[in-house]
Write a structure and sequence with these properties.
Blueprint: H1 14-26, E1 33-34, H2 38-42, H3 46-58, E2 62-66, E3 70-74, H4 76-89, E4 95-102, E5 106-112, E6 117-122, H5 129-135, H6 137-140, H7 147-165, E7 174-178, E8 181-185, E9 190-191, H8 199-218, E10 221-222, E11 231-234, E12 237-240, E13 247-248, H9 254-272, H10 282-290
Antiparallel strand pairs: 1-3, 2-3, 4-5, 5-6, 6-8, 7-8, 9-11, 10-13, 11-12
């Protein structure tokens, strides 16, 4: 698990951020930045470099590796620090609190600001870059990209989708984005995977999620990673989150991805609530979403 770098921010000095930014720049060209390049990239005096390296290494913001040369790269904590500093300078975030969710591809924290927010750090590509590159469209055509690029593109894609979808679709309101991090509205609710729906609620919740998927399609997007883990259920409705893999509806595989989303969602309900889930003609359901004629699960029952 990546540590919450917010607790270390007050210890960092301007020169530390110059070094981190310089290594970030160098990682555009190489996964490990040669020590000899650090004065050029960071614009720090060579005599100060070792001091800054020691400070950042002590705080686990950097990694060092000796190959044909001594090289450095950012850890995710180092990249987090750069993004968090930018949010602080923009007055987007005043502080970071407890974790809200930790996964293989993202960490989400409470964020303090003018309202309760969520700060999401994308982690795609750090430990399994090769597999992510195969699976993510935004890295599939890149022969040599660092995990910084992979994670940043995921954040950019998610923020772009949220800006396009909100408020027509029930998604978290986007607030800001920098590097691999997205700040968004904090959503209260229970993840669909952990929700215990009463029998009389099952059809209604399924209908609400499908309605949001249809609204997203009207707004130009297919989620492309829909599951019971990407929906919050609350007393006032549902919210669909986690949109970095979303594709536009004019994408050549959008229909196929929509079919998979519908299959995943309906499959969860069928497996978890077999007696209460209506039998649905999934092909007809997808047709109705694509044709903008979805009128609820009753209209597409088999």
């Amino acid at each position: 698990m990546v540590q919450n770098v917010a607790t270390r921010m007050a210890e960092l000095e301007e020169g530390d951020f110059h070094l981190l930014s310089g290594i970030e720049h160098g990682m555009r060209f190489s996964r490990w930045v040669a020590a000899g390049k650090l004065p050029e990239f960071s614009r720090l005096d060579p005599g100060e470099i070792d001091h800054r390296i020691d400070r950042c290494m002590d705080r686990e913001l950097l990694e060092r590796k000796t190959i044909q040369y001594t090289g450095y790269r950012l850890t995710f904590e180092g990249y987090d620090a750069l993004a968090l500093r930018t949010f602080a300078e923009r007055e987007t975030v005043e502080g970071v609190g407890a974790p809200l969710g930790v996964g293989k591809e993202s960490d989400v924290y409470e964020a303090r600001s003018f309202q309760p927010l969520a700060l999401k750090y994308h982690r795609e590509g750090y430990t399994n870059f090769r597999e992510v590159r195969k699976e993510r469209e935004y890295t599939a055509d890149k022969e040599h990209r660092s995990w910084l690029y992979t994670a940043r593109k995921a954040a950019e894609r998610e923020h772009e989708a949220l800006e396009s979808l909100y408020p027509a679709v029930s998604v978290p309101r986007p607030i800001d984005q920098n590097r691999h991090a997205v700040v968004m509205e904090r959503i209260d609710g229970v993840e669909l995977s952990r929700a215990k729906l009463e029998p009389e609620q099952v059809r209604g919740v399924l209908d609400l999620v499908l309605t949001e998927m249809a609204a997203a399609y009207r707004a130009g997007y297919v989620h492309a990673d829909m599951s019971e883990y990407n929906v919050f259920v609350a007393s006032d409705g549902v919210t669909v989150f986690d949109w970095p893999q979303a594709v536009p509806t004019d994408h050549e595989n959008s229909r196929e991805l929509l079919e998979r989303d519908v299959e995943n969602l309906v499959g969860h309900f069928e497996q978890t609530y077999p007696g209460e889930t209506p039998e649905l003609d999934q092909r007809r359901l997808v047709d109705s979403i694509v044709a903008d004629s979805f009128e609820g699960v009753r209209a597409v029952g088999s």
